[in-house]
Structures are given as C-alpha cells and as structure tokens.
Amino acid sequence: MARDAHPQAMQPHEPGRTRTAPPKMPAQFPFAGNYRSYILFDATGLVYLLAGLVALRVVWALGTGPEAWARVQAQLSHPLYVLFHLVALAAVCFVAVRFFRLFPKAQPPRIGPAKPPPAPVILAGLYGAWIGLTLLLVAILSGGLFG
Amino acid sequence: MKHFLLKIEPIVWLLFGQGILIGTMLLTGWILVVGLAVPLGIVAPDALAYERAHALASNPVGRLLLAALCALPLWKGAHHLRSLSIDFNGGGRDAAVASALYLIAALGSVLAIVAVVRL
Fold first, then answer.
1. What number is the ipTM of this complex?
2. How many independent structural domains does chain A possess?
3. Nearest by CB to A89, which of B20, B36, B84?
C-alpha cells in the first residue's frame, strides 16, 4: 500500500479550479524497482562529498610540507580510510556507468544546425575518456610516467 | 532564501554536472593509486614521495587538475544529498538543507583553490 506523500509535493503556485486527489508516493519508493538505483545514485553524493574533502586534506598536507605529507600518507593506510576508498571506488564506477547510460538520452535533438552523434559514438567517447584518463592518472601517480 | 537558491540554480547545476562528469573521471585514478594501491603496498611508496608528489602537483596542469578533483565532487555530493533530502519528505526543510550543503561545497571550493595556490 502506497504511503502518503508530502502534502505540498505537487502544490501549484496558485489554487487551480480543478480539484485533484492528494499526491501519493509510488508504491515501490524508495528501495524497490527502478527507485533502488535512483536512490543509490543520489546516495553516492555522500561518498563524493567525503572523497572531495579527503582529497582536499591530502592536497593541503602536500602544500604544508614533508612532515604533514608523511602524516597524511600514514593516515591513508588506516583500515577505515582503505575501506572508505573501496566504497568510493565502487561509487564512482556505479555513477560512471549509470550517468554514461543516461547521457545520450539527455542530448538535445539539435543545437543550431548540428545534430548530436549517435548514442554508440557518444558512449564510446565517454568510456574512452574515462578509461583513458584513469589509466593515464594511474601511470603518472604510480611512477610509470614522469618517474 | 528560496529565491536566492533559484537564482544560483544554473551555477549549481553547472558545477554539479561537472562534478559527475569530470569529478568521476579524475576520482577513479586518484582513488586507485592514492587511496588504495599505495596504502595497500601494491605500488611502492616512493611513487608518492614528497619531492615527486610536489613536483607533479605544483605545475600549472597539476594545480588545475587537483583543484577540480577537490572541488567538483563537493558540488556533486551537495546537490545529490539535497535531492535525497527532498525525496524523503524534505520539501519543508529544503532551504536550510540546501544552504548548508552548498555552503560546505563553496567553502571547500575556496579552500581547494587556496590549497593548490600554496603548493
């Protein structure tokens, strides 16, 4: 049985002349059907927010000096940080796959005289850029390039 | 506050979209090496020795990428958490939640710029 939605969820800016039934939340909301993936996609926001703050902390330590850098490197080896980064890796992969799938559908039919390329071309570009940039960053950061 | 949030919506959406696209592309390699491979000993710690890390980070391209890496995911996170709050009957508290989340993202973005400038 669907539960009641927020009473103002669909409220118009001014009262209309047509009476409408009070809004109901969909029966599958929030954790069944398509809503599971939708809610999970939104929930990755927490992981991104924390990942951005951790990255900021690491960069700040790099600017502070060698001692602060050594301290933050040691802290990143803590099991909780490692666990967080495993969750963060799963989150970024989930976001990438879901967002890339939606991206071709969100394109306008045309911008001026130009039409967007076919969906497979857009997808190939997105996955190519993601995998290519990831491999490049891994090579640089791990010392394989510019070592 | 609601009026102000509506006015900044285009800027927030731009940063949110870039947080998903560019943030995801940069975070994957960063997490793999800085968050996992070096701490787990898969990559030798020398790869991120201070002198090397500082040299990589302090050139103009390095600074730009690190600023984007730190700031853009904050906007993706802030906007999606706001959306999550609204979905769970948070329409009434939206102005306060959105203000707090965007303030965190904005402050973090300023700090990210300061962090790469002081490298």
1. 0.96
2. 2
3. B36
